[in-house]
């Protein structure tokens, strides 16, 4: 079989892969990107029209430099592409329950978000329930003792558009994009790395894998033991009273109970759609990724409305406009892995980044490209090392 050679091969072209491919090509590397589908697509974790972005990341301080850099890159890409990628409508993180809400490893997610904003000088306001209601009437039903964190620099990004813009830019810089091809194996070979598909073999000096839900099967140990794939559901409910939403309404994260599953997040109505996107999170792993059910049942719709919409939001009806399924691929501590493969030389693993990854993806792509080409990155990635699991 003929071997095609390149400096770097990027396996998986979702959020992290598209960003890494773009940054490598921009830096002048001879780079090939490979994906089993035709990104942007709806088969993994990087779809659903909108993704929250926020500077004060309650999951931990190590993420803040990445999201800061990502915001700048989105604006650069907007200027280059002419596409609207980043809507800076603000983000509201709230706790409206008797007990603080635990989320992504933080015992009190709202409080930790506020503390990080204070520590790192991020512009924000801490709001009482009455102040939240006065400014954003859709949150009228929240508890009287609710606490809110409002960050004006936050908002949402458009994942499909961001991926497409980066892949287009990568091509303009000379990258080769190979789609509809599944990588069957990655092998270290004579100082390089061999990436095999059914009918093509690529030999690269280095490989970056951003394979998301397929990472465990492709990479073997320790990733097959560390990574868990979880099914997530996205819902768009019709609005009863669109006028209740302010002209500029924020994205939101609402902790409405003490456990990891007592949380929901969502977005302001997109002009012309007359619906509100909202979702929750769950962390029961799939027995097999082949068993993923990509349909949303009426029972799941009713449960979502009952558990998270009713009693928390005004002006939102139980009528479903549309629904979608995506996956989270998560580690035991919900943190990312960005590190060398322990058994495959010259292979960098960028996974799992689900749950809150898209907001960081542009910055991660830049940092990983720098690390690949120079051995170091402007942003410290040590917090995402595999060593923490040993």
UniProtKB/TrEMBL annotation:
Needed co-factor(s): FAD
Molecular function GO terms recorded: flavin adenine dinucleotide binding; sarcosine oxidase activity
Domain of life: Bacteria
InterPro entries named in the record: FAD-dep_OxRdtase, FAD/NAD-bd_sf, MTOX
Residue intervals of the FAD dependent oxidoreductase domain: 7-371
Residues spanning the membrane: none
Keywords: FAD, Flavoprotein, Oxidoreductase
PANTHER family associated with the record: FAD DEPENDENT OXIDOREDUCTASE DOMAIN-CONTAINING PROTEIN, PEROXISOMAL SARCOSINE OXIDASE
Name recorded for this polypeptide: FAD dependent oxidoreductase
């Amino acid at each position: 079989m003929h071997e095609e050679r390149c400096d770097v091969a990027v396996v998986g072209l979702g959020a992290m892969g598209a960003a890494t491919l773009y940054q490598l090509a921009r830096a002048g590397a001879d780079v090939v990107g490979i994906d089993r589908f035709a990104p942007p697509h709806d088969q993994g974790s990087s779809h659903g029209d909108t993704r929250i972005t926020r500077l004060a990341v309650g999951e931990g301080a190590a993420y803040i430099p990445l999201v800061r850099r990502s915001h700048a890159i989105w604006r650069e890409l907007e200027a280059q592409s002419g596409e609207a990628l980043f809507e800076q409508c603000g983000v509201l993180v709230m706790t409206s329950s008797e007990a603080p809400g635990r989320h992504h490893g933080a015992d009190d997610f709202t409080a930790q978000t506020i503390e990080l904003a204070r520590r790192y000088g991020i512009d924000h306001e801490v709001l009482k329930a009455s102040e939240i209601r006065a400014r954003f009437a859709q949150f009228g039903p929240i508890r009287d003792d609710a606490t809110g964190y409002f960050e004006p620099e936050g908002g949402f990004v458009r994942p499909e558009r961001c991926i497409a813009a980066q892949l287009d830019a990568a091509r303009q810089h000379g990258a080769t994009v190979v789609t509809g091809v599944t990588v069957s194996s990655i092998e270290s070979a004579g100082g390089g790395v061999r990436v095999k598909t059914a009918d093509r073999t690529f030999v690269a000096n280095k490989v970056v894998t951003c394979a998301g839900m397929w990472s465990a099967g492709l990479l073997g140990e320790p990733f097959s033991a560390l990574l868990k794939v979880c099914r997530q559901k996205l819902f768009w409910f019709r609005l009863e009273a669109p006028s209740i939403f302010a002209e500029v309404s924020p994205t939101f994260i609402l902790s409405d109970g003490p456990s990891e599953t007592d949380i929901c997040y969502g977005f302001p109505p997109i002009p012309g759609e007359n619906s509100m996107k909202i979702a929750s999170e769950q962390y029961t792993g799939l027995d097999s990724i082949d068993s993923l059910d990509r349909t949303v049942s009426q029972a799941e719709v009713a449960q979502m409305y009952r558990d998270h919409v009713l009693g928390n939001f005004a002006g939102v009806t139980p009528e479903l406009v549309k629904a979608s399924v995506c996956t989270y691929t998560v580690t035991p501590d919900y943190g990312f892995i960005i590190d060398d493969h322990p058994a495959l030389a010259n292979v960098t693993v960028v996974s799992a980044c689900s749950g809150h990854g898209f907001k960081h993806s542009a910055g991660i792509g830049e940092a990983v490209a720098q690390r690949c080409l120079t051995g170091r990155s402007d942003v410290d990635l040590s917090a995402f090392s595999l060593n923490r699991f040993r």
